[in-house]
Specification:
alpha+beta, 5 strands, 4 helices, 5-stranded antiparallel β-sheet
């Protein structure tokens, strides 16, 4: 099994624990895969805006990654964060530019877009891009359908 997602790093490509990473390399975690600060493995989010729950957009870079091997999924229903994973193996594919992140968020559901606007430090000009964007939402039945489809 594998999952494509996003991971934030400090601008020098270290994680919050000081470990250094490089684009194109594959990393492996030994031991039981567990979610959380005291867990084990490589964390990633499939929704790019969820990265900003864990890293400061002003002092970090966001990368596209592929997680594979043993993995566990984590959903934080209370706060509305879904499809986060901890994986045994991680490959860092590339850095996602600020422009690309903003473009992605202009074309997503209102609840995801609103969380992004709240957590990302947008300039006034960038905020104006979001004015007039269609305000459609992803209701819980759509989310349930997406979850069911992922199982197949």
């Amino acid at each position: 099994m594998f999952v494509i997602g996003y991971k934030g790093f400090n601008k020098d490509f270290t994680n919050r624990y000081g470990n250094k990473f490089e684009i194109g390399k594959v990393y492996h975690a030994d031991g039981e895969i567990k979610w959380g600060n005291n867990g084990n493995g490589f964390h990633l989010c499939t929704n790019i805006e969820d990265c900003f729950r864990y890293v400061d957009p002003d002092t970090s870079v966001i990368t596209e990654v592929i997680g594979f091997g043993k993995m566990k999924e984590y959903d934080d229903e209370y706060y509305g964060y879904y499809d986060m994973y901890v994986c045994e193996n991680l490959r860092i594919v590339r850095v996602i530019s600020r422009e690309e992140i903003i473009s992605m968020m202009l074309h997503t559901y209102a609840d995801r877009r609103n969380r992004f606007i709240r957590d990302y430090n947008l300039t006034e000009a960038e905020l104006k891009l979001f004015e007039g964007v269609e305000r459609y939402g992803q209701n819980s039945s759509e989310r349930c359908k997406r979850k069911q489809l992922k199982k197949y």
